[in-house]
Amino acid sequence: MAENTEGDLNSNLLHAPYHTGDPQLDTAIGQWLRWDKNPKTKEQIENLLRNGMNKELRDRLCCRMTFGTAGLRSAMGAGFCYINDLTVIQSTQGMYKYLERCFSDFKQRGFVVGYDTRGQVTSSCSSQRLAKLTAAVLLARDVPVYLFSRYVPTPFVPYAVQKLKAVAGVMITASHNRKEDNGYKVYWETGAQITSPHDKEILKCIEECVEPWNGSWNDNLVDTSPLKRDPLQDICRRYMEDLKKICFYRELNSKTTLKFVHTSFHGVGHDYVQLAFKVFGFKPPIPVPEQKDPDPDFSTVKCPNPEEGESVLELSLRLAEKENARIVLATDPDADRLAAAELQENGSWKVFTGNELAALFGWWMFDCWKKNKSRNADVKNVYMLATTVSSKILKAIALKEGFHFEETLPGFKWIGSRIIDLLENGKEVLFAFEESIGFLCGTSVLDKDGVSAAVVVAEMASYLETMNITLKQQLVKVYEKYGYHISKTSYFLCYEPSTIKSIFERLRNFDSPKEYPKFCGTFAILHVRDITTGYDSSQPNKKSVLPVSKNSQMITFTFQNGCVATLRTSGTEPKIKYYAEMCASPDQSDTALLEEELKKLIDALIENFLQPNSMTRYFLCMRIQQPLWLTLCLHLLSSNAYSLTGGMWYIVWRPVRTSEL
User: Fold this and answer.
1) Smallest Cα–Cα separation from 36: which of 55, 3, 7, 60?
2) Annotated Gene Ontology MF terms (predicted)?
């Protein structure tokens, strides 16, 4: 007699029409189970369906990823809004359709694909596999593909796109995100990240190409197609050769007594930073053995983000002390960002912020340009750039030295795009940065580059050491000459989009309709710039020079006392971020006084503009230096706490009222 088990019934259910009560969800379930050929992600959806978890299914299947400041980025796993085999195939099919429309020579010039070392066993999903599927989609359509044969730093992909004259490229990476995430970062033929309208048009094409084409799943093409090429050796050689353009003291480097420790945070950076040091004439930096090799679990750090400071640099600092090394350099897992720390005379470590490193880079790159410029070089053709939420220190240096400084919207895609415009007009760009430890020295790569930044910091430190000056001492000299720039960056977590929107709408209608605030507490506001609406009170026509960005909220206030503060939303997280900086003149050297003034202004900003205690739902504020575990402990231990303050962190939390449920 045939068995009629529950398993058989469930199996039959999976092949029957789906009746969840939501036609959109029923369609999405059917599409996923027909199209997905990855057994593990397909099984994830089948299990959710079998257990009647319709909300989870809806969250996974009834939305799609959108392009943020760094391409497509999401958690790995099953679903149309996750990174997985199927969504990468769909994204690449959309890319193919759009590139075919834009480039008549697409099939002659080809496409670049790179990847980092991320992976997730539960979804059978790794950056390498996703890169192979990306290549397979294009190879099946007779497009030449330059697929790196091993993991590479993210900057290698835009560099390769330029050097190989490809129409575009993709890097499979989630950079410094948590281990569960991955991403799909797109570069245009220029070597810069895509901006509008390309991002919107590619998304449209993706939506038109959601069903996998014949051959799209055939990753065997990566091994058999004559159209697949490996650019690794050629690109690595050319990249290292181009590094010499920003090396100014090779002989001095070879004689330095300084020792350097480098950590690659379980990512791609180790081999390439070692090579870069050799190009600059240095002895190899000392690697952190526990973090040298790729590990998708990032097993020695809670967060693979070197920007978090001493809490994630513990192994590096300990090794440096053991090896008598004064400088620690940390590249993030895809080696596009850099953190640096220096041992001080009192035995403590100074971990530089992104803004502080930028002050040093700005001074260094201009000083080297002055000493090595050609006879007919004109300082008026020289430019440096930064995102609008970053320090204004480059602006201060530019005003005194005579070169140009420009701001862009947040995200290196805007910096890269602007650099292209400047280069096409015969300008020279020395340096660009964003406050989140993203740096670009020179223009060989049009994206942030942790490999080149690491070796430039090493050369800077070696040069200063010949004069018995530390990096921190030189930073003080920069501030004494150009003015102290003291900045604080933090964020609030707010889980209700309507609350976030109401905060910004109130600022746009503060004293009366369509009137921005003139004061923040007792602090007078000089200018207001609203990127969301395109308003800028400092311009004669009241229109912002920066592009309007209607999909995000961002307002900048310039105060009479020299402070600049920006409030903006995050494109990927439920955050309201604030960036505040006191920009002092060189004669204002009392840093304690400046810090106190900045603190008072930030407190006024929070109290008058963000008003966390008046939020109608759960609202949390946390300085980025504050470890998440402590926040969670406070959450558990003190459910009635309304405000908690301290020197390095600030939390505001109010429970939901019964009447609000």
Assistant:
1) 60
2) glucose-1,6-bisphosphate synthase activity; intramolecular phosphotransferase activity; metal ion binding
DSSP state at residue 606: I
For the chain, the maximum distance between any two Cα atoms, rounded to a whole number of angstroms, is 96
pLDDT digits (tens, 9 = 90+) for 317-339: 999 999 999 999 999 999 999 99
pTM of the model: 0.90
Q: Is 296 helix (H, G, I), strand (E, B) or coil?
A: coil
Residue type, 419: I
User: Would strands 125-126 and 119-120 be described as parallel, antiparallel, or unpaired?
Assistant: antiparallel
Task: Please state the rounded mean pLDDT for residues 628-641.
Answer: 41
Helix (H, G, I), strand (E, B) or coil at 225: coil
Q: Where are the CATH 3.40.120.10 domain residues in the chain?
A: 66-230, 238-482
What does residue 541 show for φ and ψ, rounded to 5 degrees?
Answer: -95, 5
Q: What is the pLDDT of residues 377-424, one digit of tens each?
A: 999 999 999 999 999 999 999 999 999 999 999 999 999 999 999 999
CA dist 133 and 136 (Å) reads: 5
Give SS3 for 629.
helix
**In the 8-state DSSP scheme, what is residue 627?**
-
Residues with catalytic function:
175
Superfamily the domain 485-660 falls into: Alpha-D-phosphohexomutase, C-terminal domain (3.30.310.50)
Are 605 and 599 a contacting pair, CB within 8 Å?
no
Q: With pLDDT > 90 as the criterion, what percentage of the chain qualifies?
A: 84
Dihedral sign for Cα atoms in the order 25, 26, 29, 32: negative
Neighbours of 16 (CB within 10 A): 7
Task: Provide, for the chain, the percentages of residues in helix, strand and coil under a 3-state DSSP scheme, each rounded to the nearest 5.
Answer: 40, 20, 40
Region 541-569: mean pLDDT is: 95
Rounded to the nearest 10 degrees, the angle between the axes of helix 156-163 and helix 232-243 is 100
Superfamily of domain 66-230 in CATH is: Alpha-D-Glucose-1,6-Bisphosphate, subunit A, domain 3 (3.40.120.10)
The pLDDT of 583-608, averaged and rounded, is: 95
Instruction: Kindly state the tokens that stand for 592.
Output: 């304690």
What's residue 570's pLDDT?
A: 81
**Residue 197: is the preceding peptide bond cis (ω within 30°)?**
yes
Burial class (CB in 10 A: 0-12, 13-18, 19+), 594: buried
**pLDDT (0 to 100) of residue 20:** 84
> What pLDDT is attached to residue 615?
53
Taking the C-alpha atoms of residue 640 and residue 587, their distance in angstroms, rounded to an integer, is 46
Strands 145-147 and 228-229, sheet pairing: parallel
- Give yes or no for a contact between 580 and 601, defined as CB atoms under 8 angstroms apart: yes
* CB count in 10 Å sphere of residue 616: 13
Which CATH number is 238-482 given?
3.40.120.10
| Closest C-alpha among 40, 221, 64, 60 to residue 134 | 221
Residue of 208, 214, 218 whose CA lies nearest to 64 = 208
Q: Which residue has the tokens 């199927």?
A: 86
End-to-end alpha-carbon separation of the chain, Å?
A: 55
Q: pLDDT tens digits for 114-165? A: 999 999 999 999 999 999 999 999 999 999 999 999 999 999 999 999 999 9
CA angle 329, 565, 410 (to 5 degrees): 55
Are 341 and 321 in contact by the 8 Å Cβ rule? The answer is: no
Report the interhelical angle of 85-102 vs 127-139 (nearest 10°). Answer: 40
